[in-house]
Amino acid sequence: MLNFTFYNPTKVLFGKGCIASVTDELPLKGKILLTYGGGSIKKNGVYDQAKKALAGREVLEFSGIEPNPKYETLMKAVEIGRKEQVDFLLAVGGGSVVDATKFIAAAIPFADEDPWSLLHGAPVKTAVPMGCILTLPATGSESNSGAVISHEGKKQKRFFGSPLCFPQFAALDPETTFTLDKRQTVNGIVDAYVHVLEQYLTYPVNNPLQDRFAEGILLTLIEEGPKVMKDPNDYDARANVMWCCTMALNGLIGSGVPHDWATHMIGHELTAIYGLDHAQTLAVVLPGILKHQLIPKNEKLNQYCRRIWNLQDPVAAIDATETFFRELGMKTKLTEYGISKGLEEVGERLAEKGYALGEHQDILPGHVTPILETRL
């Protein structure tokens, strides 16, 4: 087991009707900036629930946050936050809204230079406190300290994180997910599944408890994911998937084990260049990465093969994973998204950033194009 520090201060409010409890977590005084996306929360009733929880507070609103939140959009919220001197941020939406709000929280007091430098390693010295009401389980952003932000002008998608950006609380009511469409639902299941694999399919470090935690999440997603796709109003299945998504990336299963994240890094470039959904890129890239890494990942792939799929051949387990994604309704080939050429740009962009990917840093930019060519 590797040395680690596990820290997660986010208070989780889980279950039917829990949004009403948010009122007890919010400051009574000061200005609160409510952030959300394209307005779906006004159609499904979550906006009204949030406003009721905010009753008696001075509330400002910022809407229009994109599924891949854009720096250009978020800087408008930062300007509001600075001008109005907001004291708290409440994100209502999916992981993109939560990610965006983390950036807004860090950028409002970051006045020394362009806040985009936060995405290039500039330290977060202070941040406006925030909480969230989750409506789309997928990224785990509701109870971690990281965020991914896109810059439309630069065609970049980058990560930043800080312990100061943990949400103080997260309200997770599975009923808010009933109105999600199939694309959003399958995206969330695949996103969570790959989050687990990025922390599990590396190499053994004698950490059986973390392995069992990870395997439990994977098996639950395999069991509960199809139920949600079949019946969107199945509360128990929705609740189980929602909790899996949170547990997949709240820091617990990644403590004391090596991490990969190559699939994510390549996927971010595909999103930046082609505009694919984050989870779509993961479903495309993952099988290619795993087959490229058959030897370095041999021990854990064999364990995954036996314990998750009850198979003996790691390649068959990789294929079973892809089949699972496809049965949920996720496309897994680049050509299915109209992408058949120009793949070398992905590797070139990674080379410009000086990236060597994977838990062994043995996936080099020059390997990326051949990997992606297997995904046509």
Walk me through the structure:
- Helices cover 45% and strands 12% of the residues.
- The mean pLDDT is 96.
- The chain has helices spanning 40-43, 46-53, 71-84, 95-107, 182-200, 208-230, 235-248, 262-274, 278-292, 298-309, 314-328, 344-352, 365-373; strands at residues 11-14, 31-35, 58-62, 88-94, 130-136, 146-151, 156-161, 169-172.
- The longest helix has 23 residues, at 208-230.
- It has two domains: 11-176, Rossmann fold (3-Layer(aba) Sandwich), CATH 3.40.50.1970; 182-373, Dehydroquinate synthase-like - alpha domain (Dehydroquinate synthase-like, alpha domain), CATH 1.20.1090.10.
- The chain starts with 10 loop residues before the first strand and ends with a helix.
- The chain has 376 residues and is of the alpha/beta class.
- It is built from 13 helices and eight strands.
- The strands form two sheets. Strands 1-8-5-4-2-3 form a six-stranded parallel β-sheet, with helices on both faces. A two-stranded antiparallel sheet has the order 6-7.
